[in-house]
Amino acid sequence: MAWKQPLIVFVIALVVRLIHLWQMREAPIFSVLMGDGRSYDEWARRIAAGDWLGTEVFYQAPLYPYFLGAIYTVLGRDLLVVRVGQAIVGAFSCALLGLAAERLFSRRAGLIAGLGLAIYAPAIFFDALIQKTVLDVFFLCLALFILSRLFDMPGRVGVWTSLGIVLGGLSLTRENALIFVVIILVWIAVRRRHPGTHPRRDQTLTRRRVTEAGALVLGLALILLPVAIRNYAVGGGFYATTSQFGPNFYIGNNPRSDGTYMSLRPGRGAPEYERQDATELAEHALGRRLAPSEVSNYWSSRALNFIVSEPGAWMRLVGRKVLLLWNADEMLDTESQESHAEWSTVLSVGGLLGHFGLLVPLAFLGVFATWHERGRLWFFYAMTLAYAASVIAFYVFARYRFLLVPLLMLFASAGLCAVPGLFRASSPARRAMLVATLVGVAIFANWPVLSATMMRAVTENNLAVALQEEGRLDEAIGHYQRAATLRPDYAPAYNNMGTALRAKGRVEEAVAAYERALVAMPDYPDAHYNLANALLDQNRSGEAVDHLRIASRSLPSSAGVHNNLGKALAENGRFNEAAAELRQAVALEPASAKAHRNLGNVLASRGDVNEALTHLQRAFEIDPADAEAGYDLGTLLLQHERIDDAVLVFRAVVRQRPDYAEAHNNLGIALGSQGRLSDAIQQFEQALRLKPGFADARRNLEIARRVR
Fold it and tell me: Exposed, middle or buried by CB within 10 Å (0-12, 13-18, 19+), for 74?
């Protein structure tokens, strides 16, 4: 029966994935979301809460968060339910790929392709993550299934429209997959409809091509047009999918790129920083506010400048990306397959054979075996090479290149089926040449490029960050220590460990951790910034200034860095320099009560009273609950004999903080200056009740009683 083989593939794929989920259920890495998974989950929860439109142009591909949001809306937020659902989707992908291979090659090839994807370790790994890769593969396998139906026969308009819809869905999970649309349009333009019929003799050929291309584009538009309209409504510009092209293009094409992901600011690879850093750095460079399209254009132009000005360096970089793309090593995004394999027998055993380093030579064998059909199969060669080029144009991640796997699996299945015939029909010399070539391809694909230990260390660090965000500091510190043990030169682990230790009050240990981070990565701005803050905790403001200066050069748009540098300079009596830094902090973040307060205090220290009052008043307006800002404002008003204003401010402060002894004392002084000695005595008495050893309040109380 036609359905029996795909059903077998589906069942095996599903069982393998469910076993993997069962084995992973107790792993700490399984229950804690990190990186993009955490970001997608938060986004999905907002969608489930009713925020379906959002407020900004999409920066990340949106379909997967909406997929999650729909599940959360209907079934509630249960990540195990999501993972089981994804296992089912992944199993369908295997069945669809098998059907495509069966139509293109043979029934046996279909079984091999479907089962190959079913037991392929990275596919099992990705299907279990809270990640969009599961949808990437599903849409591509569905597209390949539809294409296999259209391959040798004309298709109805509805089929072409369906293909456009599927490719639209794929482009909303993997934007560079739009390259497939270009290849398919070329295929429509040049393919023949009937073997042996010359295209010029087919009077309806052009009409058919236009109809098919139009139906494909219509299906694509049905998916992308609503997204473009939505992006225009919230961002005022045209964005068919997202606005991250420019930053991603620059990340993969700049003087310090190594072919993988490197954040725009060192050590800030988390999703929540990507848009912020891209925007802040571009706006600082151009000196003005930028629309999302302008941010993208800024980074694109920088990447193109590098390519044009340093073509030799760029070509070497492209060569490294080619090596990474076709290599057995899976370059992690947030969590590595190796870390999951510590808990999953399915991955640890399946990864021995089910890996990219074996798939590539098998796919090469398939291309060799089917080369005599290249006139028929060129379209699939083109899809594979075009997508590979689209990844190399940016940077290489395991999940970015994963869309190559279904395409390679098609050729691998054809190659395995053809092995007996190839060796029977070939001469000894031809067989030897084939074997030698396959060995060469296998060596190239399996040449060590990436460190599995480093990827495990990165995973441990990312897990610790997620635990720290949940307030589980002791567990986080343990995983940071494991990351540092795995890779003693991994700077982010030490930096993040220092942050957790400082939060625990272990400042001396935090300082040591930050210093280890800077030994490993001397230009790490976050480590300089964090070390400076820890030094300020220890009243070592002079040393803190040096580290904040370094941080400010890498983080010129960070109001926090300029604010803390101003604070450290002020503690060293360098008020003019402090005021300059704090003015910059206020300019960068006008709504920062902290920056206004610190600037006001510095200005007061150097005698600029009126301007100081302006900033202190602004700080208290921005954050009326900040009793410290109110206290500083009231004290300055009191010192300059604006008694009525001081009374109003101090009353507001003690309403916010009834236990603020110093504010009660200064309110008493202000009331006494108004001649309201009884009220003043009450405030001094309250200050002493709150702080029995408060000498100033006791002295003021004695004076008030004598005067009265």
Answer: exposed
- For the chain, percent helix, then strand, then coil, each to nearest 5? 75, 0, 25
Integer Cα distance of 706 and 363 in angstroms: 98
Mean pLDDT for the stretch of residues 428-441:
85
pLDDT tens digits for range 575-632: 999 899 999 999 888 988 999 999 999 998 888 989 999 999 999 899 888 889 999 9
Q: Find the largest Cα–Cα distance for the chain.
A: 119
Q: 104 is written with which tokens?
A: 């293109």
Residue 626, H or E segment: none
**8-state DSSP, 523:** T
pTM of the model: 0.83
Query: The tokens 């190594």 sit on which residue?
Result: 258
260, HSE (Cβ side, Cα atoms, 13 Å): 16
- Could you tell me which of 491, 456, 518 has the C-alpha nearest to residue 269? 491
Q: What is the amino acid identity at position 700? A: N
| Residue 553, φ and ψ in degrees, nearest 5 | -70, -35
Q: What is the rounded CA–CA span in Å between residue 49 and residue 295?
A: 30
Q: Which amino acid is at 319?
A: G
Cα 106 to its chain centre, rounded Å, is 41
* Other beta carbons less than 10 A from residue 505's beta carbon: 9
Q: Is the pLDDT of residue 560 over 80?
A: yes
Domains of the chain as residue ranges with CATH: 4-241+331-444 (no CATH), 245-307 (no CATH), 523-614 (1.25.40.10), 624-708 (1.25.40.10)
Alpha helices in 555-591 (DSSP H): 559-571, 575-588
Quick one: which of 248, 266, 265 has its CA closest to 302? 248
